[in-house]
Amino acid sequence: MPHVVVKLGAGRSEEMKQALARRMAEALTSTIGCGEDAVSVAIEDVPMAEWTKAVYIPEIEPNLDRLYVKPGYGRT
């Protein structure tokens, strides 16, 4: 049962976030073969001024070896 949490720089519209969540759910069901009823997707808005402190340092930097897609940036 996949549960995905997407952290985004704040400012995307509700329509964009809904479309992203739908596309991610579709990708999960078609790629790993689970049913739609097994998927949940959450989206958290993070103010860009807080991104490094709130997301990069605690979640990305210490887990680079586990990231399947790595960002092209570092601490700012």
Automatic annotation (TrEMBL):
Residues annotated as domain 4-oxalocrotonate tautomerase-like: 2-51
Enzyme Commission number, as recorded: 5.3.2.6
Residues at the catalytic site: 2 (proton acceptor)
Keyword annotations of the record: Isomerase
Superkingdom per UniProt: Bacteria
MF terms in GO: intramolecular oxidoreductase activity, interconverting keto- and enol-groups
GO cellular component terms given for this protein: cytoplasm
Name recorded for this polypeptide: 4-oxalocrotonate tautomerase
UniProt enzyme class: isomerase
Lineage: Bacteria, Pseudomonadati, Pseudomonadota, Alphaproteobacteria, Hyphomicrobiales
Gene3D superfamilies in the cross-refs: Macrophage Migration Inhibitory Factor
Protein species of origin: Aureimonas pseudogalii
SUPFAM superfamilies: Tautomerase/MIF
